[in-house]
Amino acid sequence: MSGTRAREGISLSSLPPQEGNTLVMNSIIYLVGLIVVVLVILSLLGLA
User: Which parts of the chain span the membrane according to its record (predicted)?
Assistant: First the structure.
């Protein structure tokens, strides 16, 4: 019984954090993309 209870607890407690983690990951990927674009533009301007 303890195994099933643990599984239920993990499944229930992992649903909201997964949504939050996806939002955090999307924001991090967006920021990383912006930083990469800025670095590429700066490198192109420096080379030019």
Answer: 28-47
